[in-house]
Amino acid sequence: MKIFEFLHQQAIEKAKAYEPKDFEILGLWQSEYLLHPNRRERRFHLYYVLVQTKEQGCCYYQPVMSPIELPNALIGRYALELQDAPLPLKIAALDSAYGVFKDAPDESFTIRGRVAEKASKRANIVYHETLKLMERRSPKSKHWKIVNVGVVTNIVKYLCDHEFFEVKATDFDESLIGKILFDKAPVESGEKTLELVAQSDIAIITGMTLATESLDTIVETAKANNTSIIMFAETGANFCQRVL
Predict the structure, then answer these.
(1) What is the pLDDT at residue 139?
(2) Domains of the chain (ranges plus CATH)?
């Protein structure tokens, strides 16, 4: 069973303990997203869709896909019964459902400031998760291979500053492929993602791998090669802890 299908089935079972109105779609939003958060970071060009039930769910997706339609008929629908909807909309709806379940996080952070400051602070959280994972796996190791799937340049910068990290990245953005970030981290085509995941000790991925339908093969490859995964999720932020 694929990861999305598994999460969806889990949500259907968990939802039985709640009122159906908690999962009724009250609103839908979609935006085209252009952002250059700071000088260090790449320029992002994406779409995202939001689904509002009792809580809110989100899915980012790439502009190579046409903007999805938001039919008026979806208002009032049960968020876990959207079999006929485009995948990004189903992901956002599922995310809103897991927002209702409200799993308690192990840690929480409050980030304030301008966009540039927040982008760097978020990246620093991911970097420190990498350090904690390194300590759990093999604290005495002096060489770690790390791949960032879907370049987040602020994260790559923190990784490149660590003397024990050999950093690579993959992306489908042609403006990034072939670059060496911070004179240390080469960016390969997204076609090489599974190869580099298999070769790495840690893979840092984003929630958008669910929208690109690449998450299942990444997780399978990681398990087969003892590669640990850190997932940085705006897409699926409410359910990502259940993925790994």
Answers:
(1) 81
(2) 3-101 (3.30.390), 115-242 (3.40.50.11590)
**Are the CB atoms for 92 and 27 separated by under 8 Å?**
no
In the block, residue with structure tokens 């997780």: 219
Q: How many angstroms separate the CA atoms of 53 and 62, rounded?
A: 24
| Nearest-angstrom CA–CA distance, 121 and 129 | 13
Which residues lie across from 58 on neighbouring strands?
Answer: 50
Per-residue pLDDT tens for 50-109? 999 999 999 999 877 678 889 899 999 999 999 889 999 999 999 999 999 988 888 899
Q: Of 176, 235, 228, 175, nearest to 209 (Cα)? A: 235
Name the strands in the sheet holding 27-35, side by side, starting at the edge strand that comes first in the sequence: 27-35, 44-52, 56-61
How many angstroms separate the CA atoms of 97 and 78, rounded? Answer: 10
pLDDT, position 33 = 85
SS3 assignment, position 243: coil
- Distance set, CA 227 to CA 75, 133, 180, 190, 230 (Å): 41, 11, 23, 18, 10
